[in-house]
Write a structure and sequence with these properties.
globular; 12 strands; 10 helices; 420 residues; alpha/beta; seven-stranded mixed beta sheet
């Protein structure tokens, strides 16, 4: 069976890769089962019923479905409370609402994982000089550089937190457009332990994008106070059409809700329109879909390692998120890889990805994503800035078999276009 005329070298390498991934897949399936059962328990404890799947209009007073969805995610994330809304337009928006909800003039935000991801920098005021940033409101940003191995420099983290006593200690779980490792719950716990010890009043906030449901341990159980992310990544299960979440300590979530709506109304208002059914279905599927994306990432690492490329993480490494980094070496291979991913899509397979300028990014970016939801990166996608080291950041896969095909087509296109 070869519907796509894939080079025999790729087919043979993929068969070897599947054998290498066997034990890792079993480990992922155990996590999928655990988190799926936990999610079903969350639905039951929240008392989800058919009427919750309907939406409201206007102010959205007494929207029982909205409130039940908050309870579902709170339980699933081991949080005291959660704010899950379709009108968070992105993960960056959810993070920004949280930052503005909790930080005040003259406060300091200390990033202990180096420079934050590109799109949040303009909200902080590090880049772009846009009006309305944290900087505009007199909020200071500081950061600790990463150690040479790409992990947090724990000694420097302790030193800076102790000196600064910052209002917020900010952790970014995923690598963003860097080659540093993503953080597992163990590294997150270590950062939290340091912060709690030397500055117990600091709020520990986590950018949890791409890290949901990839393990049995939640960041909020190891010391994180509040975290945020996107529903068109892991947390929405490939079904949520838009949205984001904030979850954590109840009083902090309330502060964020006052920023999202107005002080005093907070979570009590906000019509859900016709979004509830898809948001509930997305939550229900999220643990399984996140596992399928993990399998796709593991397979991609194994296949490209066999073909001679450096990957991060390696196929058998412990993972902190669903993102797979593949070092392709030059712009031509990078563009070919993204073209292969696009050609394996069910939607827009005929489109050719090309590098272009993107809002919030300093370099031209190429993106491949034939997705049912525009910009969804829990569906198989690949993107990268056109700059050294010409690595591609790949993530997603609603089911492993379609993800596997996309990866094989990407490998096929790299081989055929470059004759290597």
């Amino acid at each position: 069976m070869n519907f796509f005329d894939i080079d025999n070298r790729v087919i043979e390498a993929s068969e070897k890769a599947l054998k290498l991934c066997k034990d890792k897949f079993r480990e992922i399936e155990d996590i999928q089962e655990y988190n799926t059962q936990k999610m079903i328990k969350a639905f039951q404890l929240a008392g989800v019923r058919e009427s919750h799947l309907k939406g409201t209009t206007g102010y959205g007073y007494d929207d029982a479905g909205r409130d039940a969805l908050d309870r579902v995610y709170a339980y699933a994330f081991d949080a005291e409370d959660a704010l899950v809304r379709h009108n968070f337009v992105s993960g960056t928006h959810a993070l920004t609402v949280a930052l503005f909800g909790m930080l005040r003039p003259n406060d300091t935000m200390l990033s202990v994982t180096g420079m934050p991801y590109d799109t949040i920098r303009s909200a902080i005021g590090i880049e772009g000089n846009y009006p309305g940033s944290l900087k505009d409101f007199g909020i200071s940003f500081k950061m600790t550089e990463l150690a040479e191995d790409g992990y947090p420099d724990y000694d420097e983290v302790e030193k800076q937190i102790k000196e600064e006593q910052p209002k917020m200690v900010y952790i970014q779980r995923s690598r963003g457009y860097s080659t540093r490792p993503s953080l597992t719950w163990k590294e997150i716990k270590k950062l939290c332990d340091i912060s709690k010890r030397v500055s117990p009043k600091s709020i520990i906030m986590l950018d949890n994008c791409y890290g949901e449901f990839i393990d049995k341990v939640e960041p909020l159980t190891v010391g994180v106070d509040i975290m945020a992310g996107s529903l068109i990544k892991n947390a929405g299960g490939g079904i949520a059409p838009t949205g984001g979440y904030i979850a954590g300590k109840k009083e902090l979530v309330e502060m964020c809700a006052y920023r999202l709506t107005t002080p005093g109304t907070g979570k009590e208002i906000g019509a859900t329109l016709e979004a509830n059914r898809e948001l509930f279905m997305g939550a229900y599927h999220a643990p399984h879909i996140s596992g399928e994306a993990l399998k796709t990432a593991v397979f991609a690492a194994a296949l490209f390692e066999i073909l001679g490329y450096k990957t991060e993480p390696g196929f058998n490494d412990k993972r902190g998120d669903i993102i797979q980094l593949i070092m392709l070496g030059n712009a031509e291979k990078l563009i070919s890889f993204c073209g292969g991913i696009q050609s394996g899509s069910a939607v827009d397979s005929f489109v050719t990805p090309v590098p272009s300028d993107m809002p919030g990014y300093e370099s031209q970016v190429i993106m491949a994503a034939g997705a049912f939801t525009l910009g969804s990166s829990i569906e198989l996608s690949a993107d990268a800035p056109l700059r050294e080291p010409y690595a591609v950041w790949m993530q997603g896969g609603l089911n492993f078999h379609s993800g596997k095909l996309g990866i094989m087509l990407a490998a096929d296109k790299v081989l055929k276009d470059k004759k290597v």
